[in-house]
Structure formats: C-alpha cells, structure tokens
Amino acid sequence: MEPLHSSDPAHIAGYRILGRLGAGGMGVVLLGRSQGGALVAIKLIRAEYADDAAFRARFRREVSIARQVRNRWAVPVVDADTEAAAPWLATEFVPGPALSDAVGAGTPFPEHSVRALGALLAEALEAVHAAGMVHRDVKPGNVLLALDGPRLIDFGIARALDDTVLTATGTVVGSPGFLSPEQAQGRRIGPPSDIFSLGCVLAYAATGRRPFGSGPVDAMLFRTVYDPPDLDGIPQALLPVVQACVSKDAESRPTAAQIRTQWTRWTQDTAGRGWLPAPVTHLIAARSTQMLSLPDIESTQFAAPRDDADTRPVQPGAPAPGRRRFLTYLAAGGAVVAAGGATAAWLTGVGDDGQTGSDGDRSTGSDGNGDRAKTRPVLGIGLQADLSGAQSARGKAQQQGAQLAVEAHNARSDAPFSLKLTMVDDRGDEARALTAARRFTDDTSVVAVLGATSTQTAGAVLSAYDEAALSVISVTDGDTRHINRVFQCARPNDAMQMVAVSSYLGIHDLDDIALVDNETEYSRQVTRFLSEGLRTGGDRTVLAETLPLDSDDHEARARQMVAKRPGAVVHGGDWQDAARFARALAKTGYRGPKFATQAAHDPRFLREAGAAGDDWLIVSTAVDPSAVRSAGAFGKAFRARFDTAPPLFAAEAYDAVRLIIACVEGLDRKSVSRQDLVPVLRTTTFTGVSKPYAFNKENGWYTGDQGVFLYRVENGQFRFLGTDPAKA
C-alpha cells in the first residue's frame, strides 16, 4: 500500500480512505474502512471519464454485472455510486498479493497449489457463466491470493453472453498472453474463452512462464492463434486438464464445472490453510498484520429503542454499533450503493377496487370505512413472494402478515391515506421473479415492495428495482452479496447470525470448533465468516469439515469429526442437509453443543431429524410471536383473522408494512415519490412487534441489536430462548 496523494479524497461516502492500492489510466484503487470497521478496495474513476456518457453507461453495467456473480471465490462488490461526479465501486478487500506478483517474484506453484487454484477459479467461473456472463479478462493480475483460496476480481470488461458490444470482428478485448484465439481474432466469444484463459493462468502458475511467450502484442496474438502452447514443466498429473483448456478448438475445452469436479479431491485440505507455498503464506500474513495496524474508525452507539409499540413517529437512523475486532469479519459483506436518479411514483387519489389481477396477482385494500376511504389518496405496496413453490410456507406467512397490517391501517379513522397491497406469486422461480418485479416497477402507484422469499429470486430482481428507484424490503433474505441502493434488509445478514454463536462459544469457553460446510453458497458464507472471526479475534482452533450435498458418507465423516473431540459443532447447511447430519451425529454419541443456522429453522428439519434433532440450538432471525410480549396484540389479531397461530416471518412482514407506513407519514406530504422513500427508509428507527428496526444509512443493512434469536429443539418442537446466548 502507498501513501495517499494530495489529490486523493480523505473520505468517499461513509468510507475513510487509508491509502493507495494501485493506479491505472482510468482511475485509482484506494483502501477504505467502513463505519463498521471492514476494509474495502475502492475503484475511483477519473472525472474526465465520468463526463463521457458512454463510459458512465458501461460503468453502471460493470457494477450490475459484478453484483450478479455470487460465489465465495469471486470478490463481491459491496458498495458503489455510479452517479457521483467521480463514480466509484467498492469490493471486499483481500490482503494478499495477486498471482502475478507471487509467481513473478520467482515462486512457481507446486502441484497441489495449482490443482487448488484451478478448482476454485473454475468454481468462480462456473458462477460467472451461470449468471449469463463471460469474464473476458482472466489473468494472473486478476487473481488475488488468500489463505483460504484465490479470489477472482475485475469484471470491468465482462459482458452478458447475448451481448454484441465489443464483439465485432477486428476488436480485441482482454490481456495478450492470456486471452483466447477467438478473442485474438476479434470473434464472438462465450464461456470456453474464459476456460482457455484459465488454462494459461494455470500454466503460468505451474511454470512461471506465459504459455505463448512475451514480447510485442502482435507476436503474442499470432502465437495464441497459430502456435502450440509451451507447457514444459507442468506436472504430469495436471497436464491433461491444462492441455484441454488451451485447445484451439473452443468446443473441445472442458466446462468450468468439469474442471471443478475433476480437481476437487483436495477440497477438505483447502478448507484449511495449507494450499499455498510457504513464501506466499508468509507474505499474506505480513500484509494482514499491516492491515491490523491501520487506524480504526471511531465506534458509534445505537440509541436504545422506545418501550412502546407505536411506530408512526419517524426518527433519524443511527449507524451500526461498534463491534469487537474479530466480529468485523462477520459483517464484511454488508454495504451498498448511494442514491441515484429514477422515475418517480406518486400517491394517487384513485380509490381501491380490490380486484384480483392475472397470473397470480392479487390486490387487497378494503378498510371498512365506506365512501370516506374513496376520498383518500392510495398508497401502493407490492408483495413479491413464493406462494405456491418450495418456500410457500414462508411466502404465505409474509402474505398474511402484510394483509393484516394493511387491513389494520385502512381501518384507522385518522389514516391520511389508504393502502393497496398487490401480491404476485413468483413460485420461487427466477424468471417469474423478474416478471413480478417488472409488474411493480411499471405500476407507478407502487412505492415500495416487500419480498422476495428466496435468496435466488431476490438476487434476480434487485437490479430491476434499482433501475426504477423502487425500495424493496426483505424479511427473509440475508445474503451478504445482495446489495444495491434500494435494498433494505430487515433482518441481520447471513453472516451476522454467527454473532450469537460466537458469543455462546466465548461465554462457555469452548475451543476446537467443528464447522461443517456443505459447499452451498449460503453455507460457505456463514462458516467462512465465523471461521475467520474465531481465528482472528478469539484465537480458537477451527476444525473445518467439508461435507458436500451429494456425499453418501455422513456417518463416517461424522465419526471422523467426533474423534477430534470438538468442543462444539456448527452446521452451515439447509434444513434437509442439517437433518441428515443430525441423524449421523446422533449415532456417534456426541453430547456437545450443536448449532444449525437460519436455513434449518424449518418444521421440515424437525420431521426429518426426528429424535436426533433434540437439543440442537437453532440460530434464527425470525421471532416466535407467542413468546415475546411485544407481539401479544399482533398474535391475538392474527388468530382472529386467520384462525391459526402466526407462522415464522408473519410478524416481520407485518412490521415491514408498518415501517413503510411510518416513513410515508413521517414525510407529511400530500404526495410521495419513490425517490423520496429510498433515503427515508434508511434513516428511520422503528419499534416493531418482532424487534426494533434500524438500518445503516449507507447500505440499508439491519443494524439493530435484537435481531438474532436462539431456539432449542425439544421433543420435536422449536422452543424460543430469546436473544441472550448466556441463557441457552
């Protein structure tokens, strides 16, 4: 890292700038620290490029593309402002060197390191290609090295598979020496082009040489198209895969998934810290130590919420509370974009007819106040949820909670406006989710949306809502990669669930913690952040266990894990995999603490695990309304309306609608635009029936301190324990 120049800013948005990481023709890369303490790399674009409308459009696209790729080995964009005078984007900071620096310093990688590098980069490219993208610039300089694996960066020239931009004949895009023959000839490219580049990167890592030599660009391009690659020195065991990757025939190259599958026998090894050559490991450790010596951001205090449940007054929001250093790792993914321009949506004076729409759309707005209601302006709220798919139980819970809030509001004689709730069933399908989002973005009466139910559907629609400046509030999705300027996460993100687990382990002084990762993105997020937090802040031993979803040896692996005498076990998978593991673990006789996460807080876990699920501690962001006094009136009203106890996430959906009401009433205007609501939602503190709500004004993440709850499984039921790990 270099010192700041006199022309460099001291702050960008909510980030304190600490130094320079690099510079190029289009801008500078700065090291920044967020208000929560997380380090980020900020790419700041030079103002002269920002004045170019075409460039700014491309930069918006870069940000949009980067947000669609969600994989632990692809560095996520955590914040951006594409509309600033000098636009910028921030990514998660990786304190390791680029592969080009490590190998260029005279350190070719041994066989096991190249194999690990190839498998993990293939997995990152698999996510890129699954998102409909081609990276286009896979090279050693775009691969950062961390102790737990590599990170693929810089989607600056990535394009959608069906995009014709920059693919015209005669146009070369990429880095000579690592680009594919089709890139060198300016032909249209697809995922096989990235695979060719990956093969070149692996050859470079294994030998320290570019497989098509160096020198003038024209010469390198000629050799790439016509000459065989120089693969001398590549270990024999790796040669078949590398040769296949750098085939001139794009159709004969393996897919990213095939490479990942072929080279994942070392996976359990790389879940620890031994995949890199010792000199590189030492370099990363030295850089990490340097980062710890950087100045801290002063911590701030979150004002305690009011005791009453009246949520209508709107209060200025407060930044996130300070955390101990090791817990800052758990929040590394939570940041987002600043405000930008969009089409306004306004309250209208049209009465609500309550009619049912097509394709699963339903509207409700009856308030029982007769003609008087027809004179009120009408506020449109959308609900996008899975009402008939795999997660329909949660979707219907949100539907019922939102309906109850709408009906309660419309029955108020002093309500300054009526609510119209329009519900669209996306069935948990990404294509239908995007159609649902367009339904709401095109309806100018809708000023906010509640949804979506699943992580996949939420990720599919955020760009559409962002373009329309339409605020979306999620009470079920906490993926740390889901970030943009309109997203409000009304629950702690997935990684922050682990704060409760960390506290429990500290209170009970437990060490040798077994973290079970089933190789899903969700599981990796929660186990990775907990692992880094425990190792960095608590100096605890972490026993990393990788147990893939398709594994058929749960019992054998559970016995191997128990033989290491873990002080506690934390499973990061979904309800089905957690239940399967619980049955296997029960057969070993293990009696220590056992944790599962939000994904296992599902009645299906209870049924599948059976007696083996008893005594498991479940970390959840959903409250049990029957167990907290603040939700007493809500529970009574819910039973009267739906003739059943409120299910999980019904209270949170009820609160989300009331939060929107509070924000609109706080503006105290005759008309409210979508743009008006975006910043207000982030500067509002709110006492709901489930918990107090507050959001980080920069990124929209939940910052309240009562959003994670513990449950214990007893006799096939989830028993609510509350928020205090000491009582678990």
UniProtKB/TrEMBL annotation:
* Pfam families named in the record: Peripla_BP_6 (PF13458), Pkinase (PF00069)
| Keyword Signal in annotation | yes
Q: Annotated region Disordered: where?
A: 303-322, 350-376
Domain Protein kinase: residue ranges: 15-267
Segments of skewed composition (Basic and acidic residues): 359-374
| Keyword field | ATP-binding, Kinase, Nucleotide-binding, Serine/threonine-protein kinase, Signal, Transferase
Q: Which Gene3D superfamilies match?
A: 3.40.50.2300, Phosphorylase Kinase, domain 1, Transferase(Phosphotransferase) domain 1
**UniProt GO molecular function:** ATP binding; protein serine/threonine kinase activity
Nucleus keyword on record: no
Checking InterPro entries in the record gives:
Kinase-like_dom_sf, Leu-bd, Peripla_BP_I, Prot_kinase_dom, Protein_kinase_ATP_BS, Ser/Thr_kinase_AS
Binding positions (ATP) = 43
Q: Which family does it belong to?
A: Belongs to the leucine-binding protein family.
Its recorded name reads Serine/threonine protein kinase
